[in-house]
Design goal:
five-stranded parallel β-sheet, globular, 23% helix, alpha/beta
Length: 373
């Protein structure tokens, strides 16, 4: 009795120059697929080298990706998507902070660049799938459809930043590292065994287009410094700032408030008002959120038709919390089983049914257990 051999796919492997994407490309090639490597040139001025473990998309990274492709034995190209990246990710980043929201550029990049601009170009050139080094799993359903699930190793799971992918994008996605129950050290050991120079290369962290990690300085260069008031929950002025865009809901450090709280406890950013350039601070309990409304939902499959019980993740490295969610007026209404803290408009909420990613939406408004003045 014979069995059908796995289909050989034409795969475009997005190679950042890091260890994960290099090992993913190597695994795809080892599985018998026809793999071509591509490095996305996303910086309009990629002349500076990364700073420690920060940054990406530099000339150094493109060279590292090319060397990895040579070792794997696959063709390699550099595609210039810098203008598209600037428009869809960097400009969106500025606009969201200017509006008092806290964006997640990694989600936006996956949605607009890696699985939109890159995928569209790949399909037009006859490729079947785009391969990346993300830690997430794709499960084939009996009807031929595909589901996005968490990685086998929860410690490395990156499904949160992939929650923006729809059915069409999932149909052409490949994540060779997703079902790997290994440590990052073992991934590096695998890279070394394969002769990949990037085996010891440090991971990039934070926001890739802010190489020095100074988000506030990066925003200030574009948006300018605009002094405003820091007020308490009663509206009393207790300090000043140089730009409301430099703060995010739940922030504790860097407030530079000279006047201590009456109870001596730390204060946190509760609200950001770009209209009057005011930042409101208060005690941790005022951060408790009981419900939220989210916009621009994207479903990894069929959209829910009514209320349902799920778990939700509110940040890339956050835990899960139980929620009830229902599509309402083209958006999403979410109620938490227990109050949660540090929920910032502009961030994504990703819904899960077990390990399956149901979909995501962008947080627009929150309901507080204690109203902020």
């Amino acid at each position: 009795m014979t069995t059908d051999a796995p289909r050989r796919l034409r795969v475009l492997a997005a190679m950042s120059g890091g260890v994960d994407s290099a090992v993913a490309a190597a695994r795809a090639a080892e599985a018998g697929h026809d793999v071509t490597g591509v490095h996305l040139a996303l910086s309009e001025n990629p002349k500076s080298f990364r700073t420690g473990a920060r940054g990406c998309c530099t000339i150094e990274d493109s060279h590292d990706a090319r060397r990895a492709a040579d070792v794997i034995g696959i063709p390699f190209y550099v595609w210039d998507l810098a203008e598209r990246f600037r428009e869809d990710v960097v400009e969106d980043f500025f606009a969201e902070y200017e509006a008092g929201r806290t964006p997640n550029p990694c989600l936006r990049c996956n949605e607009k660049i890696k699985f939109a601009a890159l995928l569209d170009k790949a399909l037009a050139l006859g490729f079947d799938a785009v391969c990346t080094g993300h830690y997430a799993t794709i499960v084939e359903r009996p009807d031929g459809g595909r589901e996005l699930h968490r990685a086998s190793d929860m410690a490395k799971d990156q499904s949160y930043v992939l929650g923006v992918l729809d059915d069409r994008q999932l149909a052409h996605a490949m994540f060779p590292l997703g079902d790997t129950l290994t440590t990052k050290a073992e991934i590096r050991e695998e890279a070394a065994r394969r002769g990949l120079f990037v085996a010891k290369k440090p991971d990039s962290h934070d926001i890739c287009f802010i190489a020095d990690g100074d988000t506030q300085g990066f925003l200030a260069k574009r948006l300018g410094r605009a002094e405003g008031d820091i007020v308490d929950e009663s509206g009393a002025k207790i300090g000043t700032h140089e730009g409301a865009y430099g703060f995010t809901i739940g922030q504790r450090k860097g407030l530079r408030i000279g006047t201590p709280a009456p109870d001596g406890k730390p204060r946190y950013v509760l609200d950001i008002s770009p209209v009057d350039n005011t930042v409101t601070v208060g005690p941790a309990e005022s951060l408790d959120v009981t419900a939220l409304t989210a916009v621009r939902p994207r479903w990894c499959g069929a959209a829910p038709t009514g209320p349902g019980t799920y778990t939700a993740q509110l940040r890339a490295h956050g835990g899960e919390t139980e929620v009830t969610a229902e599509p309402v007026d083209g958006g999403l209404r979410v109620t938490f089983a227990e109050p949660v803290r540090g929920v910032a408009p502009g961030q994504a909420i990703v819904l899960y049914d077990g390990t399956r990613v149901v979909g995501s939406a962008t947080i627009a408004t929150t309901d507080r257990a204690r109203a902020v003045a």
